[in-house]
């Protein structure tokens, strides 16, 4: 993996408002989750871009461990999810070989990541619907405190498969619809940057449709997240993705409606 050099400096946490309800945020905002293998490159690039646009957003990885390139292909740097901060990874690699890890972009990537949130999290360990009050310093956290999102965007097919399989195994205890969309992005810094822009464009398109349908059914009913109140929006999503795909033909997309 060639890590991303990021999309720019992270915004201050105070710029995001509760569920995006502010003048700067432009009103109602869907809640997003971005997912890649190690919660390092592609998902974090998208996380940053969405948070900069005032979308509530969280991010995860689906791998068994966090893996970063090492001095050779057989010597990766391996870390545990949920237990190792981006800052500690940065300091460890800087101490090991600052020239190597600056040249391959790892230090720049980890520097960006530690400005977004504390450390990589694993999707399979996420307790959907459980409060995330300890993540108040994460960019994009305001609006996701309840542990729910409306859209999950993965960055490669195996991650999409892992998310969909995991949701099926959970048995839909909340009976709440969630759109799971895969945007296939090669795992290098240039493609992650392009993919982040594409995901942000898709988020704006989805959000515009959600705002329209929310006004029709009423804010309380739509925000409750039930299948009936969201059905008109859910039915529009495939067409929205198809239109988006015409604008981003080099980012193949796959979609399904799943359930929390």
Describe the structure.
By secondary structure, this protein is α/β, with parallel strands linked by helices. 41% of the residues lie in helices and 13% in strands. The protein has helices at 42-52, 86-96, 98-103, 106-114, 157-170, 189-217, 219-224, 227-247; strands at 32-36, 57-61, 66-68, 77-79, 151-154, 177-183, 253-259. The strands form two sheets. Strands 2-1-5-6-7 form a five-stranded mixed beta sheet, sandwiched between helices. The protein has a two-stranded antiparallel ribbon with strand order 3-4. Helix 6 runs antiparallel to helix 8 (227-247). The radius of gyration is 18 Å and the shape is globular.
As residue ranges, the low-confidence spans are 2-24
Strand fraction equals 5-15%
Shape: globular
Helix content: 40-55%
Order of secondary-structure elements:
EHEEEHHHEHEHHHE
Describe the structure concisely for a colleague:
By secondary structure, this protein is α/β, with parallel strands linked by helices.
Output the keywords.
alpha/beta; five-stranded mixed sheet; two-stranded antiparallel sheet; 260 residues
Present the secondary structure layout.
Blueprint lengths: L31 E5 L5 H11 L4 E5 L4 E3 L8 E3 L6 H11 L1 H6 L2 H9 L36 E4 L2 H14 L6 E7 L5 H29 L1 H6 L2 H21 L5 E7 L1
Parallel strand pairs: 1-2, 1-5, 5-6
Antiparallel strand pairs: 3-4, 6-7
Helix pairs in contact: 1-6, 2-4, 6-8
């Amino acid at each position: 993996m060639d890590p991303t050099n990021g999309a720019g400096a992270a915004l201050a946490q105070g710029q995001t408002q509760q569920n995006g309800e502010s003048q700067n945020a432009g009103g109602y905002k869907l809640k997003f989750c971005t997912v890649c293998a190690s919660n390092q490159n592609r998902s974090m690039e998208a996380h940053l871009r969405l948070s900069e646009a005032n979308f509530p957003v969280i991010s995860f990885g689906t791998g068994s461990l966090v893996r970063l390139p090492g001095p050779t292909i057989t010597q990766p740097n391996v870390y545990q999810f949920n237990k190792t901060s981006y800052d500690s990874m940065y300091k460890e690699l800087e101490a090991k070989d600052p020239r190597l890890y600056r040249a391959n972009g790892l230090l720049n990537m980890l520097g960006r990541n530690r400005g977004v949130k504390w450390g990589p999290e694993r999707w399979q360990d996420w307790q959907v619907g459980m409060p995330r009050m300890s993540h108040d310093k994460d960019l994009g956290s305001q609006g996701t405190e309840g542990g729910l999102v409306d859209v999950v965007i993965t960055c490669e097919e195996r991650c999409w498969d892992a998310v969909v399989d995991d949701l099926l195994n959970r048995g839909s205890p909340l009976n709440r619809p969630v759109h799971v969309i895969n945007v296939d992005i090669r795992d290098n810094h240039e493609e992650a940057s392009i993919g982040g822009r594409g995901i942000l464009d898709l988020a704006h398109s989805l959000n515009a449709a959600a705002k329209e349908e929310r006004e029709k059914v009423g804010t309380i009913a739509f925000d409750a997240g039930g299948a009936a109140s969201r059905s008109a929006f859910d039915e529009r999503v495939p067409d929205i993705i198809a239109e988006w795909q015409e604008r981003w033909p080099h980012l193949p997309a796959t979609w399904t409606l799943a359930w929390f």
